[in-house]
Structure formats: C-alpha cells, structure tokens
C-alpha cells in the first residue's frame, strides 16, 4: 500500500492500552513520518515501551491486555483480525535494550531470519548477510570470523549484530527500545551514527531515557508522562520552545 500523501508511515489514533484493569496508555495520538527518526522520551513507567511495542504487536503476547483506538501502518489497521502478525513483525523490526544475539555463529544469526521466512537460495542468503552487516557498520570487524560464536563479540558489536539481523529480513520500520542503555559511550556513539545513516532507507522510532541522545538523533520527539502524550513535534521545537510546562520541567531536570 502506498505511503499517505502527508508522509506518514504510522498513524496512532486515540490509542489506550490496558494490562488487565490498569490503563497504561490513555488516548495517545501521533504520527510517525517516513525516513525520519521519532524519539519517545519520558520518565520510567510513563508508557514509552508499551507504546513502541504496539507498533509491531509485541503486546499481543501479554496476557489479559487490550487495546482501544487504532494504529495504522501505511493506512492499514494492523490490529484487524485478517492482518498477518508475522508479516507486520517482518515489516516492523525491533532492537531491544539489551543485545540478544542467538547462541549461534555470526553468520547464522543473520541467515536464521531469512530461513524461517522461506528463503533457501544460499547465494542470496550470503549476499544479504554481507549487505546487512555492512549497513550495520559491522562487516569490517567480523568478516574474518563469520562462523565464530556471536556471543564472543563485545556488547556494542552484539547490538550492531542485532541491528544487522533486523535489517536482513528487509523491514520498513525499525523500533529501538533503549538501544544504548547497556553500552559504553564509544559504542553508543557508533549506534547513534548508525541510526542517522539508516533513516535514509528506514523509518525509525527510538525510546530513550537519554534526552541528549533524543536531541542528537531524532527529527521528532514525543514526551510522555503517566501514560499520556503530553507533547509531540519537531525535536528542535520540543527542546527549545516546549508548549507544555510539564515538558519544560522534565527537560530542565525538575523531575524524571
């Protein structure tokens, strides 16, 4: 389906979300723009990770949870009964807070997703492995050890491997949930540089506690508080002329 004329990849419309009787998101509406980086910031427990996991239906796995409102991907309501959730998760990849490589070789980490999606052409798989590692700025560091265990990589390398694994199945959107939380400053800088490179080809949403990181990498920023979207807009405006007093107080360190 074609991208909407206004450039929206995702449209979140009046979304509320419940774990049992507990409402963790309340009436959230925002747009995620194609080939842009959208950051979601806010204090712990405000609903950031819950929101991002709705974009690829990861919250389907949570017992006794339910959703109100709609989330549209290129105009498609991703929660309609006939929608293939496996296809949604291929189109919308996710990189988690802690690197989670499979206990397999570097090569197998990337080929696995292709195999379970029915790809059997060895030449194509090898091409995608090289291409994905290159896009993730990891190829030069691992090209001579593709059949070594991925668990032998450093934390920063493991996280870039997880990004490459995500890229191998050709997503359209990449979700990053606190991708640098467990990384050192040098590895963090590499991931941030990588995100800026990737937005040329992908739409990116990043959850981060690091406000400086949001300012460095994102085009748009959403500030959430107590399950509500307080403010959403271009990052430079959110950080310099926020409209809501709560946003200003959070950015200035008065709470959070």
What's this model, at a glance?
This protein has 256 residues and is α/β, with parallel strands linked by helices. It has 10 helices and 10 strands.
Structural class: alpha/beta
Strand order of the largest sheet: 6-7-8-3-9-10
Distance between the termini: 40 Å
Give a quick account of the main beta sheet: strands, pairing sense, barrel closure.
Answer: 6 strands, mixed
Return the CATH topology: Rossmann fold
Helix content: 25-40%
Radius of gyration: 18 Å
In percent, how much strand structure appears in the residues? Answer: 25-35%
Q: Given the C-alpha coordinates, what overall shape results?
A: globular
What's the order of the H and E elements? EEEHEEHEHHHHEHEHEEHH
| Poorly predicted tracts of residues | 1-5
Average pLDDT rating:
94
The quaternary state of the protein chains shown equals single chain
State the helix count. 10
Specify the CATH architecture. Answer: 3-Layer(aba) Sandwich
What is the name of the CATH superfamily?
Answer: P-loop containing nucleotide triphosphate hydrolases
Q: CATH top level?
A: Alpha Beta
Total beta strands: 10
How many distinct domains? 1
Question: What features would you highlight for this structure?
Answer:
single chain, 256 residues, alpha/beta, Rossmann fold, six-stranded mixed sheet, four-stranded antiparallel sheet, 10 helices, globular, disordered N terminus
Helices and strands, with pairings:
Blueprint: E1 8-19, E2 22-33, E3 37-41, H1 48-54, E4 65-73, E5 76-77, H2 85-91, E6 92-95, H3 106-116, H4 122-135, H5 139-142, H6 155-168, E7 173-177, H7 185-198, E8 203-207, H8 211-217, E9 220-225, E10 228-234, H9 235-240, H10 245-251
Parallel strand pairs: 3-8, 3-9, 6-7, 7-8
Antiparallel strand pairs: 1-2, 1-4, 4-5, 9-10
């Amino acid at each position: 389906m074609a991208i909407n004329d206004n450039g929206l990849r995702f449209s979140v419309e009046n979304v509320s979300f419940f774990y049992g009787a507990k409402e963790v998101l309340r009436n959230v509406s925002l747009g995620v723009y194609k080939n842009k980086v959208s950051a979601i910031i806010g204090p712990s427990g405000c609903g950031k990770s819950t929101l991002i996991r709705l974009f690829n239906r990861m919250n389907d796995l949570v017992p006794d949870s339910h959703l109100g409102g709609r989330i549209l991907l290129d105009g498609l309501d991703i929660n309609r009964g006939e929608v293939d959730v496996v296809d949604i998760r291929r189109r919308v990849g996710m990189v988690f807070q802690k690197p989670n490589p499979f206990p397999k070789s570097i090569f197998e980490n990337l080929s696995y997703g292709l195999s379970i999606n029915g790809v059997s052409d060895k030449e194509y798989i090898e091409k995608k492995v090289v291409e994905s590692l290159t896009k993730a700025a990891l190829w030069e560091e691992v090209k001579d050890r593709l059949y070594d265990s991925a668990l032998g990589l450093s934390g920063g390398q493991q996280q870039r491997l997880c990004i490459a694994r995500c890229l191998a199945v050709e997503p359209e959107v990449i979700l990053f949930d606190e991708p640098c939380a467990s990384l050192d400053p040098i590895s963090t800088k590499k991931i941030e540089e990588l995100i800026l490179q990737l937005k040329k080809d992908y739409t990116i949403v990043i959850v981060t506690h690091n406000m400086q990181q949001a300012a460095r990498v994102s085009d748009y920023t959403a500030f959430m508080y107590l399950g509500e979207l307080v403010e959403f807009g271009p990052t430079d405006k959110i950080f310099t002329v926020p409209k809501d007093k709560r946003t200003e107080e959070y950015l200035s360190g008065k709470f959070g």
